[in-house]
Amino acid sequence: MEKDIHSHHISQQFNAELDDAKTRMLEMGGLVEKQVRDAISAFMNLDSGLAEEVARRDNKVNNLEVEIDEECTLILARRQPAASDLRLVLAISKTLNDLERMGDEASKIAKHSIALANEGGVSRSYLEIRHIGDHVGSMVRDALDAFARFDSPLALRVAQEDKAVDTEYGTAMRSLVTYMIEDPRSIGSILNIMWSLRSLERIGDHARNIAEHVIYLVEGKDVRHAALEEMEAEVKG
Amino acid sequence: MEKDIHSHHISQQFNAELDDAKTRMLEMGGLVEKQVRDAISAFMNLDSGLAEEVARRDNKVNNLEVEIDEECTLILARRQPAASDLRLVLAISKTLNDLERMGDEASKIAKHSIALANEGGVSRSYLEIRHIGDHVGSMVRDALDAFARFDSPLALRVAQEDKAVDTEYGTAMRSLVTYMIEDPRSIGSILNIMWSLRSLERIGDHARNIAEHVIYLVEGKDVRHAALEEMEAEVKG
Protein backbone atom coordinates (compact mmCIF):
# COMPACT_ATOMS: atom_id res chain seq x y z
CA MET A 1 0.00 0.00 0.00
CA GLU A 2 2.72 2.41 1.03
CA LYS A 3 4.62 1.72 -2.18
CA ASP A 4 1.61 2.58 -4.34
CA ILE A 5 1.02 5.85 -2.60
CA HIS A 6 4.64 6.81 -2.92
CA SER A 7 4.98 5.91 -6.58
CA HIS A 8 4.86 9.41 -8.01
CA HIS A 9 7.78 11.13 -6.40
CA ILE A 10 9.60 13.48 -8.67
CA SER A 11 12.77 13.49 -6.62
CA GLN A 12 14.49 12.03 -3.60
CA GLN A 13 14.50 15.48 -2.02
CA PHE A 14 10.75 15.81 -2.44
CA ASN A 15 10.36 12.35 -0.98
CA ALA A 16 12.39 13.39 2.04
CA GLU A 17 10.32 16.54 2.54
CA LEU A 18 7.05 14.63 2.42
CA ASP A 19 8.37 12.01 4.84
CA ASP A 20 9.57 14.70 7.18
CA ALA A 21 6.18 16.43 7.28
CA LYS A 22 4.45 13.12 7.89
CA THR A 23 6.91 12.11 10.61
CA ARG A 24 6.60 15.44 12.40
CA MET A 25 2.81 15.26 12.21
CA LEU A 26 2.91 11.79 13.77
CA GLU A 27 5.24 13.06 16.49
CA MET A 28 2.78 15.84 17.19
CA GLY A 29 0.14 13.09 17.31
CA GLY A 30 2.20 11.30 19.96
CA LEU A 31 2.32 14.47 22.04
CA VAL A 32 -1.46 14.95 21.72
CA GLU A 33 -2.02 11.31 22.72
CA LYS A 34 0.03 11.97 25.85
CA GLN A 35 -1.95 15.15 26.54
CA VAL A 36 -5.21 13.22 26.41
CA ARG A 37 -3.83 10.45 28.62
CA ASP A 38 -2.42 12.90 31.17
CA ALA A 39 -5.62 14.95 31.23
CA ILE A 40 -7.59 11.79 32.06
CA SER A 41 -5.10 10.82 34.80
CA ALA A 42 -5.22 14.34 36.21
CA PHE A 43 -9.00 14.09 36.32
CA MET A 44 -9.16 10.62 37.88
CA ASN A 45 -6.65 11.52 40.59
CA LEU A 46 -7.65 15.19 40.96
CA ASP A 47 -3.96 15.89 40.38
CA SER A 48 -3.87 19.64 39.76
CA GLY A 49 -0.11 19.67 39.26
CA LEU A 50 -0.39 17.30 36.30
CA ALA A 51 -3.43 19.21 35.01
CA GLU A 52 -1.44 22.44 34.99
CA GLU A 53 1.32 20.72 33.05
CA VAL A 54 -1.22 19.62 30.44
CA ALA A 55 -2.60 23.15 30.15
CA ARG A 56 0.91 24.54 29.80
CA ARG A 57 1.97 22.03 27.14
CA ASP A 58 -1.01 23.00 24.96
CA ASN A 59 1.12 25.90 23.70
CA LYS A 60 3.60 23.42 22.33
CA VAL A 61 0.84 21.58 20.46
CA ASN A 62 -0.37 24.88 18.98
CA ASN A 63 3.11 25.84 17.83
CA LEU A 64 3.64 22.46 16.20
CA GLU A 65 0.42 22.87 14.23
CA VAL A 66 1.56 26.20 12.81
CA GLU A 67 5.11 25.01 12.07
CA ILE A 68 4.21 21.76 10.35
CA ASP A 69 1.37 23.38 8.42
CA GLU A 70 3.85 25.94 7.13
CA GLU A 71 6.06 23.04 6.04
CA CYS A 72 3.05 21.66 4.10
CA THR A 73 2.41 25.03 2.44
CA LEU A 74 6.05 25.24 1.39
CA ILE A 75 5.87 21.79 -0.15
CA LEU A 76 2.77 22.84 -2.11
CA ALA A 77 4.44 26.05 -3.27
CA ARG A 78 7.83 24.59 -4.23
CA ARG A 79 7.03 21.06 -5.31
CA GLN A 80 3.53 21.45 -6.71
CA PRO A 81 2.66 17.84 -5.99
CA ALA A 82 -0.07 16.00 -7.88
CA ALA A 83 -2.21 12.91 -7.38
CA SER A 84 -1.43 10.88 -4.28
CA ASP A 85 1.38 13.19 -3.16
CA LEU A 86 -1.04 16.10 -3.17
CA ARG A 87 -3.54 14.04 -1.21
CA LEU A 88 -0.83 13.19 1.32
CA VAL A 89 0.08 16.85 1.91
CA LEU A 90 -3.58 17.83 2.25
CA ALA A 91 -4.33 14.91 4.57
CA ILE A 92 -1.38 15.89 6.78
CA SER A 93 -2.58 19.49 6.89
CA LYS A 94 -6.14 18.52 7.82
CA THR A 95 -4.91 16.05 10.42
CA LEU A 96 -2.81 18.78 12.06
CA ASN A 97 -5.99 20.76 12.55
CA ASP A 98 -7.77 17.83 14.20
CA LEU A 99 -4.78 17.13 16.43
CA GLU A 100 -4.67 20.74 17.55
CA ARG A 101 -8.35 20.64 18.46
CA MET A 102 -7.86 17.39 20.37
CA GLY A 103 -5.11 19.19 22.27
CA ASP A 104 -7.56 22.01 23.10
CA GLU A 105 -10.06 19.51 24.44
CA ALA A 106 -7.39 17.79 26.57
CA SER A 107 -6.52 21.17 27.98
CA LYS A 108 -10.19 21.84 28.79
CA ILE A 109 -10.41 18.50 30.63
CA ALA A 110 -7.33 19.51 32.62
CA LYS A 111 -8.96 22.82 33.57
CA HIS A 112 -12.19 21.09 34.65
CA SER A 113 -10.18 18.69 36.79
CA ILE A 114 -8.58 21.68 38.54
CA ALA A 115 -12.03 23.24 39.10
CA LEU A 116 -13.34 19.92 40.45
CA ALA A 117 -10.34 19.54 42.77
CA ASN A 118 -10.91 23.07 44.07
CA GLU A 119 -14.49 22.15 44.93
CA GLY A 120 -13.18 19.15 46.87
CA GLY A 121 -14.33 16.56 44.34
CA VAL A 122 -17.65 14.75 44.54
CA SER A 123 -18.63 11.67 46.50
CA ARG A 124 -19.57 9.90 43.29
CA SER A 125 -16.94 8.09 41.20
CA TYR A 126 -15.67 9.43 37.87
CA LEU A 127 -15.59 6.02 36.28
CA GLU A 128 -17.24 7.27 33.07
CA ILE A 129 -14.22 9.47 32.47
CA ARG A 130 -11.89 6.49 32.80
CA HIS A 131 -14.04 4.21 30.69
CA ILE A 132 -14.80 6.60 27.82
CA GLY A 133 -11.31 8.09 28.14
CA ASP A 134 -9.70 4.67 27.58
CA HIS A 135 -11.94 4.03 24.63
CA VAL A 136 -11.23 7.41 23.04
CA GLY A 137 -7.51 7.09 23.81
CA SER A 138 -7.31 3.88 21.82
CA MET A 139 -9.20 5.50 18.93
CA VAL A 140 -6.61 8.27 18.83
CA ARG A 141 -3.76 5.76 18.82
CA ASP A 142 -5.40 3.66 16.10
CA ALA A 143 -6.15 6.70 13.94
CA LEU A 144 -2.49 7.72 14.06
CA ASP A 145 -1.30 4.17 13.41
CA ALA A 146 -3.68 3.99 10.45
CA PHE A 147 -2.12 7.17 9.08
CA ALA A 148 1.42 5.94 9.72
CA ARG A 149 0.79 2.70 7.83
CA PHE A 150 -1.74 4.00 5.29
CA ASP A 151 -4.06 1.37 6.71
CA SER A 152 -7.62 2.12 5.60
CA PRO A 153 -9.26 -0.96 7.18
CA LEU A 154 -7.90 0.18 10.56
CA ALA A 155 -9.18 3.70 9.83
CA LEU A 156 -12.61 2.23 9.15
CA ARG A 157 -12.55 0.50 12.54
CA VAL A 158 -11.84 3.87 14.19
CA ALA A 159 -14.91 5.35 12.52
CA GLN A 160 -16.97 2.39 13.74
CA GLU A 161 -15.68 2.85 17.31
CA ASP A 162 -16.80 6.48 17.26
CA LYS A 163 -20.39 5.30 17.11
CA ALA A 164 -19.89 3.15 20.21
CA VAL A 165 -18.35 6.08 22.07
CA ASP A 166 -21.33 8.28 21.21
CA THR A 167 -23.65 5.69 22.73
CA GLU A 168 -21.55 5.38 25.90
CA TYR A 169 -21.47 9.15 26.14
CA GLY A 170 -25.28 9.40 25.97
CA THR A 171 -25.68 6.79 28.72
CA ALA A 172 -23.13 8.48 30.97
CA MET A 173 -24.77 11.89 30.55
CA ARG A 174 -28.19 10.56 31.48
CA SER A 175 -26.82 8.97 34.63
CA LEU A 176 -25.10 12.25 35.58
CA VAL A 177 -28.34 14.22 35.14
CA THR A 178 -30.10 11.76 37.46
CA TYR A 179 -27.35 12.17 40.04
CA MET A 180 -27.62 15.97 39.85
CA ILE A 181 -31.35 15.87 40.44
CA GLU A 182 -30.91 13.59 43.46
CA ASP A 183 -28.14 15.73 44.94
CA PRO A 184 -28.43 19.34 43.78
CA ARG A 185 -25.48 20.43 45.94
CA SER A 186 -23.27 18.44 43.57
CA ILE A 187 -24.40 20.37 40.47
CA GLY A 188 -21.25 22.45 40.11
CA SER A 189 -19.00 19.41 40.49
CA ILE A 190 -21.02 17.21 38.18
CA LEU A 191 -20.94 19.88 35.48
CA ASN A 192 -17.15 19.57 35.46
CA ILE A 193 -17.53 15.86 34.79
CA MET A 194 -20.10 16.54 32.06
CA TRP A 195 -17.96 19.11 30.27
CA SER A 196 -15.01 16.74 30.42
CA LEU A 197 -17.05 13.89 28.98
CA ARG A 198 -18.16 16.22 26.20
CA SER A 199 -14.51 16.98 25.49
CA LEU A 200 -13.71 13.27 25.35
CA GLU A 201 -16.58 12.73 22.94
CA ARG A 202 -15.21 15.56 20.77
CA ILE A 203 -11.75 13.95 20.83
CA GLY A 204 -13.40 10.80 19.51
CA ASP A 205 -14.97 12.85 16.70
CA HIS A 206 -11.56 14.22 15.76
CA ALA A 207 -10.07 10.71 15.76
CA ARG A 208 -12.85 9.77 13.36
CA ASN A 209 -11.98 12.79 11.22
CA ILE A 210 -8.37 11.63 11.03
CA ALA A 211 -9.58 8.19 10.04
CA GLU A 212 -11.58 9.83 7.22
CA HIS A 213 -8.45 11.67 6.04
CA VAL A 214 -6.63 8.32 5.92
CA ILE A 215 -9.40 6.78 3.82
CA TYR A 216 -9.31 9.80 1.50
CA LEU A 217 -5.57 9.43 1.22
CA VAL A 218 -5.51 5.70 0.57
CA GLU A 219 -8.73 5.23 -1.39
CA GLY A 220 -8.84 8.66 -3.09
CA LYS A 221 -12.41 9.19 -1.95
CA ASP A 222 -13.67 11.91 0.39
CA VAL A 223 -15.82 10.09 2.97
CA ARG A 224 -16.50 13.03 5.30
CA HIS A 225 -20.15 12.90 6.40
CA ALA A 226 -20.59 9.54 4.71
CA ALA A 227 -22.57 6.88 6.55
CA LEU A 228 -20.53 3.98 7.90
CA GLU A 229 -21.96 1.68 5.23
CA GLU A 230 -20.66 3.95 2.46
CA MET A 231 -17.24 4.05 4.11
CA GLU A 232 -17.21 0.27 4.32
CA ALA A 233 -17.99 0.05 0.62
CA GLU A 234 -15.07 2.37 -0.20
CA VAL A 235 -12.56 0.53 1.94
CA LYS A 236 -13.57 -2.97 0.92
CA GLY A 237 -14.50 -2.16 -2.67
CA MET B 1 -5.90 45.23 -1.48
CA GLU B 2 -7.85 42.88 -3.71
CA LYS B 3 -5.72 43.89 -6.67
CA ASP B 4 -2.49 43.01 -4.85
CA ILE B 5 -3.73 39.63 -3.86
CA HIS B 6 -4.84 38.88 -7.37
CA SER B 7 -1.69 40.04 -9.09
CA HIS B 8 -0.20 36.64 -9.85
CA HIS B 9 -2.81 34.97 -11.99
CA ILE B 10 -1.38 32.92 -14.74
CA SER B 11 -4.52 32.92 -16.82
CA GLN B 12 -8.05 34.23 -17.06
CA GLN B 13 -9.32 30.69 -16.68
CA PHE B 14 -7.39 30.21 -13.47
CA ASN B 15 -8.73 33.54 -12.25
CA ALA B 16 -12.27 32.39 -12.96
CA GLU B 17 -11.74 29.09 -11.10
CA LEU B 18 -10.37 30.87 -8.04
CA ASP B 19 -13.23 33.35 -8.06
CA ASP B 20 -15.74 30.57 -8.40
CA ALA B 21 -14.36 28.67 -5.40
CA LYS B 22 -14.37 31.84 -3.34
CA THR B 23 -17.92 32.74 -4.40
CA ARG B 24 -19.25 29.29 -3.64
CA MET B 25 -17.54 29.30 -0.25
CA LEU B 26 -19.18 32.65 0.54
CA GLU B 27 -22.55 31.29 -0.57
CA MET B 28 -22.06 28.34 1.75
CA GLY B 29 -21.21 30.96 4.40
CA GLY B 30 -24.56 32.64 3.74
CA LEU B 31 -26.35 29.34 4.23
CA VAL B 32 -24.49 28.69 7.50
CA GLU B 33 -25.35 32.22 8.69
CA LYS B 34 -28.99 31.42 8.03
CA GLN B 35 -28.68 28.11 9.86
CA VAL B 36 -27.31 29.90 12.94
CA ARG B 37 -30.03 32.56 12.78
CA ASP B 38 -32.80 29.99 12.34
CA ALA B 39 -31.45 27.81 15.13
CA ILE B 40 -31.57 30.80 17.50
CA SER B 41 -35.12 31.67 16.41
CA ALA B 42 -36.21 28.08 16.82
CA PHE B 43 -34.78 28.12 20.32
CA MET B 44 -36.28 31.46 21.37
CA ASN B 45 -39.75 30.47 20.10
CA LEU B 46 -39.50 26.75 20.89
CA ASP B 47 -40.43 26.26 17.24
CA SER B 48 -39.72 22.58 16.64
CA GLY B 49 -40.78 22.78 12.99
CA LEU B 50 -38.09 25.33 12.24
CA ALA B 51 -35.60 23.38 14.35
CA GLU B 52 -36.24 20.26 12.29
CA GLU B 53 -35.67 22.24 9.10
CA VAL B 54 -32.30 23.40 10.45
CA ALA B 55 -31.31 19.85 11.34
CA ARG B 56 -32.35 18.65 7.88
CA ARG B 57 -30.47 21.40 6.03
CA ASP B 58 -27.23 20.45 7.80
CA ASN B 59 -26.80 17.77 5.14
CA LYS B 60 -26.66 20.45 2.49
CA VAL B 61 -23.94 22.29 4.41
CA ASN B 62 -21.95 19.05 4.66
CA ASN B 63 -22.28 18.34 0.95
CA LEU B 64 -21.17 21.85 0.06
CA GLU B 65 -18.04 21.45 2.17
CA VAL B 66 -17.03 18.29 0.33
CA GLU B 67 -17.88 19.70 -3.13
CA ILE B 68 -16.11 23.03 -2.77
CA ASP B 69 -13.11 21.44 -1.08
CA GLU B 70 -12.81 19.10 -4.05
CA GLU B 71 -12.85 22.17 -6.29
CA CYS B 72 -9.93 23.54 -4.23
CA THR B 73 -8.00 20.28 -4.55
CA LEU B 74 -8.52 20.31 -8.33
CA ILE B 75 -7.19 23.87 -8.52
CA LEU B 76 -4.11 22.81 -6.57
CA ALA B 77 -3.58 19.79 -8.79
CA ARG B 78 -4.13 21.47 -12.16
CA ARG B 79 -3.01 25.05 -11.62
CA GLN B 80 -0.28 24.59 -9.04
CA PRO B 81 -0.78 28.10 -7.66
CA ALA B 82 1.97 29.93 -5.81
CA ALA B 83 2.25 32.87 -3.42
CA SER B 84 -1.01 34.70 -2.73
CA ASP B 85 -3.06 32.43 -5.01
CA LEU B 86 -1.92 29.42 -3.04
CA ARG B 87 -2.78 31.22 0.19
CA LEU B 88 -6.24 31.98 -1.18
CA VAL B 89 -6.96 28.35 -2.04
CA LEU B 90 -5.72 27.17 1.35
CA ALA B 91 -7.69 29.88 3.18
CA ILE B 92 -10.86 28.87 1.32
CA SER B 93 -10.29 25.21 2.18
CA LYS B 94 -9.71 25.94 5.88
CA THR B 95 -12.72 28.27 6.00
CA LEU B 96 -14.93 25.53 4.55
CA ASN B 97 -14.00 23.37 7.50
CA ASP B 98 -14.90 26.09 10.01
CA LEU B 99 -18.20 26.75 8.23
CA GLU B 100 -19.09 23.08 8.30
CA ARG B 101 -18.43 22.94 12.04
CA MET B 102 -20.54 26.06 12.61
CA GLY B 103 -23.30 24.26 10.74
CA ASP B 104 -22.90 21.27 13.09
CA GLU B 105 -23.23 23.54 16.11
CA ALA B 106 -26.35 25.22 14.65
CA SER B 107 -27.82 21.78 14.17
CA LYS B 108 -27.02 20.90 17.81
CA ILE B 109 -28.79 24.07 19.00
CA ALA B 110 -31.80 23.07 16.92
CA LYS B 111 -31.84 19.62 18.54
CA HIS B 112 -31.59 21.11 22.04
CA SER B 113 -34.49 23.42 21.26
CA ILE B 114 -36.58 20.40 20.29
CA ALA B 115 -35.62 18.65 23.53
CA LEU B 116 -36.48 21.78 25.51
CA ALA B 117 -39.84 22.13 23.74
CA ASN B 118 -40.62 18.48 24.53
CA GLU B 119 -39.98 19.18 28.20
CA GLY B 120 -42.44 22.08 27.99
CA GLY B 121 -39.77 24.78 28.24
CA VAL B 122 -38.71 26.40 31.48
CA SER B 123 -40.24 29.30 33.40
CA ARG B 124 -37.03 31.26 33.11
CA SER B 125 -36.28 33.35 29.99
CA TYR B 126 -33.68 32.34 27.38
CA LEU B 127 -32.43 35.86 26.93
CA GLU B 128 -28.79 34.76 27.05
CA ILE B 129 -29.37 32.76 23.87
CA ARG B 130 -30.76 35.82 22.09
CA HIS B 131 -28.05 38.14 23.40
CA ILE B 132 -25.03 35.92 22.75
CA GLY B 133 -26.68 34.61 19.60
CA ASP B 134 -26.98 38.12 18.13
CA HIS B 135 -23.40 38.85 19.05
CA VAL B 136 -22.08 35.66 17.50
CA GLY B 137 -24.33 36.11 14.45
CA SER B 138 -22.75 39.45 13.68
CA MET B 139 -19.26 37.95 14.13
CA VAL B 140 -20.09 35.32 11.52
CA ARG B 141 -21.35 37.97 9.09
CA ASP B 142 -18.31 40.18 9.67
CA ALA B 143 -15.89 37.27 9.25
CA LEU B 144 -17.45 36.42 5.88
CA ASP B 145 -17.50 40.08 4.81
CA ALA B 146 -13.85 40.37 5.79
CA PHE B 147 -13.09 37.37 3.57
CA ALA B 148 -15.18 38.74 0.68
CA ARG B 149 -13.35 42.07 0.75
CA PHE B 150 -9.92 40.83 1.95
CA ASP B 151 -10.40 43.24 4.83
CA SER B 152 -7.90 42.38 7.57
CA PRO B 153 -8.83 45.25 9.94
CA LEU B 154 -12.41 43.94 9.98
CA ALA B 155 -11.04 40.42 10.57
CA LEU B 156 -9.10 41.77 13.53
CA ARG B 157 -12.30 43.23 15.00
CA VAL B 158 -13.93 39.80 14.76
CA ALA B 159 -11.08 38.30 16.77
CA GLN B 160 -11.50 41.05 19.36
CA GLU B 161 -15.26 40.39 19.61
CA ASP B 162 -14.58 36.73 20.34
CA LYS B 163 -13.02 37.74 23.64
CA ALA B 164 -16.17 39.70 24.58
CA VAL B 165 -18.35 36.69 23.71
CA ASP B 166 -16.23 34.42 25.91
CA THR B 167 -16.81 36.78 28.84
CA GLU B 168 -20.57 36.96 28.23
CA TYR B 169 -20.64 33.18 27.98
CA GLY B 170 -18.90 32.79 31.37
CA THR B 171 -21.39 35.13 33.04
CA ALA B 172 -24.40 33.40 31.49
CA MET B 173 -23.19 29.97 32.55
CA ARG B 174 -22.71 31.05 36.15
CA SER B 175 -26.21 32.45 36.29
CA LEU B 176 -27.63 29.22 34.87
CA VAL B 177 -25.80 27.13 37.48
CA THR B 178 -27.32 29.31 40.20
CA TYR B 179 -30.76 28.85 38.71
CA MET B 180 -30.31 25.07 38.59
CA ILE B 181 -29.31 24.94 42.24
CA GLU B 182 -32.37 26.99 43.22
CA ASP B 183 -34.75 24.90 41.13
CA PRO B 184 -33.39 21.38 40.67
CA ARG B 185 -36.52 20.30 38.77
CA SER B 186 -35.35 22.54 35.95
CA ILE B 187 -31.97 20.80 35.59
CA GLY B 188 -32.83 18.91 32.41
CA SER B 189 -34.24 22.02 30.72
CA ILE B 190 -31.42 24.30 31.82
CA LEU B 191 -28.87 21.83 30.46
CA ASN B 192 -30.42 22.32 27.02
CA ILE B 193 -29.81 26.06 27.36
CA MET B 194 -26.25 25.46 28.55
CA TRP B 195 -25.36 23.12 25.68
CA SER B 196 -26.81 25.63 23.23
CA LEU B 197 -24.79 28.48 24.72
CA ARG B 198 -21.73 26.30 24.45
CA SER B 199 -22.51 25.77 20.76
CA LEU B 200 -22.88 29.52 20.25
CA GLU B 201 -19.55 30.10 21.94
CA ARG B 202 -18.00 27.51 19.60
CA ILE B 203 -19.53 29.26 16.59
CA GLY B 204 -17.81 32.43 17.80
CA ASP B 205 -14.51 30.52 17.94
CA HIS B 206 -14.98 29.38 14.35
CA ALA B 207 -15.75 32.96 13.25
CA ARG B 208 -12.48 33.93 14.89
CA ASN B 209 -10.72 31.13 13.01
CA ILE B 210 -12.09 32.46 9.73
CA ALA B 211 -10.85 35.91 10.69
CA GLU B 212 -7.42 34.39 11.24
CA HIS B 213 -7.51 32.79 7.79
CA VAL B 214 -8.30 36.24 6.32
CA ILE B 215 -5.33 37.80 8.12
CA TYR B 216 -3.11 34.97 6.87
CA LEU B 217 -4.39 35.54 3.37
CA VAL B 218 -3.98 39.32 3.34
CA GLU B 219 -0.91 39.75 5.51
CA GLY B 220 0.85 36.49 4.67
CA LYS B 221 1.29 35.68 8.35
CA ASP B 222 -0.19 32.74 10.24
CA VAL B 223 -1.76 34.25 13.38
CA ARG B 224 -3.48 31.13 14.70
CA HIS B 225 -2.98 30.95 18.48
CA ALA B 226 -1.41 34.42 18.46
CA ALA B 227 -2.42 36.83 21.23
CA LEU B 228 -4.64 39.72 20.12
CA GLU B 229 -1.72 42.13 20.52
CA GLU B 230 0.38 40.14 18.05
CA MET B 231 -2.51 40.09 15.59
CA GLU B 232 -2.91 43.83 15.94
CA ALA B 233 0.78 44.29 15.18
CA GLU B 234 0.46 42.20 12.01
CA VAL B 235 -2.61 43.99 10.73
CA LYS B 236 -1.46 47.49 11.52
CA GLY B 237 2.26 46.97 10.83
TrEMBL record, chains A, B:
This is Phosphate-specific transport system accessory protein PhoU. Pfam families: PhoU. Its main location: cytoplasm. InterPro entries: PhoU (IPR028366), PhoU-like_sf (IPR038078), PhoU_dom (IPR026022). Signal peptide: none annotated. Keywords: Cytoplasm, Phosphate transport, Transport. Belongs to the PhoU family. Residues 26-111, 129-214 form the PhoU domain. It comes from the Bacteria. Plays a role in the regulation of phosphate uptake. The lineage of its organism: Bacteria, Pseudomonadati, Pseudomonadota, Gammaproteobacteria, Litorivivens. Homodimer. GO terms for cellular component: cytoplasm. GO terms for biological process: intracellular phosphate ion homeostasis; negative regulation of phosphate metabolic process; phosphate ion transport. It is found in: Cytoplasm.
